[in-house]
Amino acid sequence: VVYNTANMLMPHFVKMHKERRHEGIVNSLHEEIRRLAAFSIPVFFGFLLIGKDVIILLYSSDYLESVPIFKIYLFLIPLELYAYNTILQAMGRTDLVFYLSIGSLAVNAVLSIALVKFIGINGAALATVIASLFSNAGCLFFIARFTNTSLAHLMPWGFLARLCLVSALLYLGFYYAKSLLPVHYGRIFPLGTAFVYWTLLGAVAWRLGFITPQDKARIRATVWSGVRRIRGYA
19-46, pLDDT tens digit by residue? Predict the structure, then answer.
């Protein structure tokens, strides 16, 4: 979803860069990150909540050792809210994309070798997350530089902090409630647990304005279209 969105918007960023509309680039980046984060952040916390249960349900308890690896890789979701390298490509700086990719690969390789010695196979997963952080941080640094924007203004940090706070608080509430449920309830119905979490979080996000008016209109149109189809079949 993230890369498809970024590729579709690349011509838009190319045009604004040629016209030197730096503020437009930043505003468009803010808008798309808000839209994608409203989906990605809840997915991250939802699977963080039921990750262990899903693996047990799908693969049995024999694969419990893979749970930490799965949860570590989940952190790639909030780290990659947008394909920032596509903005550098739109600015004609594919050379920087190349160097950052090589640097990320080197960081991943070095950290994998080092961390595996200390924490085992989990170290390789952690190295991948750190390498992604390095690559994305590099992209943001250069985007801020080329748009004459500070890193503090480049991203909608306030929006992301509020969304993560609300998602995390609900996550902690569900995590605690799940521990009080009858034995293995959460493992039998992990997707049901996540569905309730996502539904409640979606309602809160809708109420607090985390979902843009344009997306609200699209959601309403999609829902009503589905209702009409169901009525038609009935």
Answer: 999 999 999 999 999 999 999 999 999 9
pTM of the shown model? 0.85
Name the phi and psi angles at 19, rounded to 5.
-85, 0
User: Binning pLDDT at 50, 70 and 90, where does residue 102 land?
Assistant: very high
Report angle CA 198, 67, 56 to the nearest 5 degrees.
75
Distance, CA of 155 to CA of 135 (rounded, Å): 16
DSSP string, 152-183: HHHS-HHHHHHHHHHHHHHHHHHHHHHHHSST
Residue 70 token pair: 């799965």
- Whether 72 and 125 have beta carbons less than 8 Å apart is answered as yes
